[in-house]
Amino acid sequence: MAYETCDDFDMQRIGNFLSCASRGDRVGLNLMLRDGISPNVQDYDKRTALHLAASEGHASIVELLLHYKADVNLDDRWNRTPLTDARLYGHRDICRILEVNGGKDSVMNSPMTVVRDEDAKEVNIDISEIDSVNSEPIEQGVRGNSELVKWRGTWVVKTIIERQIELPVKMVLSANDNTQLRELRHPNILQFLGSIMHEGQMILITEHLPRGRLYDMLIQRAGLDLPLALRFALDIARGMNYLHHHKPYPIIHNNLDPKNLLQDEGGHLKIGEYWIQMLYELHPNQERTVNRHLVNKGRDVLLFGLILYQVT
Question: Model pTM greater than 0.85?
Answer without folding.
Answer: no
